[in-house]
Specification:
Blueprint (H helix, E strand, L loop, with lengths): L6 H9 L16 H5 L5 H21 L1 E6 L4 H4 L5 E3 L1 H10 L4 E5 L2 H10 L4 E3 L15 H10 L5 E4 L4 H4 L4 E3 L4 H7 L4 E5 L2 H8 L5 E4 L12 H10 L3 E5 L5 H6 L2 E2 L2 H11 L3 E5 L2 H10 L4 E3 L13 H10 L8 H16 L3
Parallel strand pairs: 1-2, 1-3, 3-4, 5-6, 5-7, 7-8, 9-10, 9-11, 11-12
Helix pairs in contact: 1-3, 3-15, 5-6
Length: about 350
């Protein structure tokens, strides 16, 4: 039985030269725009909807699955993604997928992590230039120099690092399990890289002596405690949730500090009347779709790397099955062990 598309999808199809009655309802959710209209204007939806339809068709043809980080835009996160979450969730779920092709809607280190955990599958990165300021702040040579300076001290690498860096470390972590990973080593002292603010947060949550690296996230470092305090003063009853990659003065004035996954859980479970998520701006859009009863105050800092991923690039990647993520076999095995150790913590 053919189900007629809604008005928004019909307009979108017409704009793309697609007959509205040819939209396969199994590939296109006619109620999708009803959920997204609070964050996507109608004119933008007219562009997105046909691409969403085409991408979902291509996923079937290619036996593909799309993994999307929380910082992706709503049309990707809610429109075409099969698996969504923070870095840890994507890493764990990537292992479980039976798809032949994995498309990573995120940044390059995430695609590398998916490839490390799925070496025999095709992993596509729609834009290879979607990088990360944290990953670019340190090299494998830097890690070797740290080991020489602090012999015998284990190295914990935030997952926001290249495969080359992961290969030189003992175990990876995410913001969601960083404290747990550090304490799982049973050591008095640990080298923690590359985010200095996350390192400072971990140091405040454990008795382990943390040796940090001087990297920082270009999105989270732009927030200030004074800015957040000003928002709180102007919005009575505001609940502030902050990511631990933010500077200490921001964390000090936050009501809750946690990873992207834990921030989402906080909003979903506690339903604050008014909330400010001190992290990448698109996450507020994505969570607001699922929590329409919560008012979101948005200090909108966007990640320029995440925004390199678009529906058009995802579509083109599925058509050509490129660009593919490949990792030098000389480093892949060692990097994989560091990631697998991270995934195993807390299981």
């Amino acid at each position: 039985m053919t189900v007629a598309p809604d008005a928004a999808s019909a307009v979108a199809a017409a704009a793309a030269g697609v007959r509205a009655d040819r939209l396969d309802p199994t590939l296109y959710d006619p109620t999708l725009y009803d959920r997204l209209k609070r964050v996507i204007p109608p004119l933008e939806w007219a562009i997105h909807a046909p691409l969403i339809h085409e991408i979902n068709r291509l996923k079937r043809e290619r036996a593909a699955v799309i993994l999307a980080h929380n910082y992706q835009t709503p049309e990707i996160y809610h429109g075409v993604a099969d698996i969504v979450g923070d870095s840890l969730a994507l890493a764990r779920k990537a292992v479980a997928t039976e798809a032949e092709v994995i498309v990573l809607a995120g940044v390059h280190f995430m695609a590398e992590t998916a490839k490390l955990l799925n070496p025999d599958k095709i992993v596509l990165m729609p834009d290879l230039d979607a990088g990360c300021s944290l990953a670019e702040s340190i090299t494998g040579a830097d890690v070797r120099a740290l080991r020489a300076r602090y012999p015998g001290v284990p190295v914990v690498a935030y997952v926001n690092t290249s495969a080359e860096v992961k290969a030189e470390t003992d175990i990876c972590c995410t913001s969601g399990n960083a404290v747990e990973v550090v304490e799982s080593l049973g050591c008095d002292r640990v080298i923690f890289l590359p985010d200095r603010y996350l390192a400072a947060y971990v140091a405040g949550q454990t008795k382990v002596d943390i040796i940090p690296w001087a990297g920082q996230c270009e999105v989270h470092e732009r927030f200030t405690g004074a800015e957040i305090t000003d928002y709180a003063a102007r919005h009575v009853g505001l609940t502030v949730l902050a990511h631990p990659e933010c500077p200490p003065d921001v964390l000090k004035v936050a009501d809750f500090v946690g990873s992207t996954a834990r921030m989402i859980e906080f909003v979903q479970n506690r339903r604050p009347a008014k909330v400010l998520l001190v992290t990448e701006c698109s996450m507020s859009d994505n969570v607001s779709v699922e929590c329409p009863d919560v008012e979101f105050v948005r200090p909108c800092n966007l990640c320029p790397h995440m925004k390199r991923i678009t529906l058009t690039k995802i579509r083109d990647s599925l058509v050509s099955l490129t660009p593919r993520v490949e990792i030098d076999p000389a480093i892949a095995g060692r990097a994989r062990r560091a990631v697998e150790r991270m995934v195993a913590v807390g299981k």
